[in-house]
Amino acid sequence: MRLFLQLVTGLVVLGYPLAVYFGLNYLPPGVIALLLCSLLLLRLALQRQQVRAMMLPIVVGIFLTAGSYLAKQTSWLLYYPVVINLSMLALFAYSLKHGPTMIERLARLKEPDLPDEAIPYLRKVTQIWCGLFVFNGIMALYTASATSLATWTLYNGFIAYLLIGTLLGGEWLYRTFWLKKS
Fold first, then answer.
1. Per the count of CB atoms within 10 A, which of 56, 71, 101, 177 is most buried?
2. Residue ranges per domain, the chain?
């Protein structure tokens, strides 16, 4: 049951922009804020034993959704992608300063005995991810504060994920085909 709940709440967190769009357009005022707040509370309870660094964005999301409901400010719901991008940027940037880098940590899950010459490359990839989080955070803030709900949803629910997927896929292709030839 716990795995099922983690899967459902994880999908809701990923689908947050679509849930907000649907909720603000088709549900009575405040209902989507309460639903999202409840799901984020459940996610927090389930995540106790997992990555502590990701607890902060969940807690901030709880405050944004609960605050949105209490203050009757649906626009507060739009700022959660900004929080996620800032959190990811902080996590990756911290790893650049204090090492090992986040990408190195992830790489070592698959290949524990990485060669020393891979470390500078992994550092550069972590820096590129930081750049993406800065860009996505700025765009999330812009779409939340200066565009329509449809534009916000398009960027945060589709384009941002497309950029993340492109970076993941592009880096994998580069590493698989070009880097191994060198």
1. 101
2. 1-72, 74-181
**How far, in Å, are 40, 41, 51 from residue 44 at the CA level?**
6, 5, 11
Which positions ≥6 away from 136 have C-beta within 8 Å?
81, 85, 160, 163, 164
Predicted local confidence at residue 182, as pLDDT: 55
> Which pLDDT tens digit goes with each residue over 86-115?
999 999 999 999 999 999 998 888 888 888
Give the ranges where 27-101 is alpha helix by DSSP (H): 31-46, 55-71, 80-98
159/164 Cα distance (integer angstroms): 9
What is the rounded CA–CA span in Å between residue 176 and residue 78? 37
Identity at 5, one-letter amino acid code? L
Distance CA 63, CA 105 (A): 31
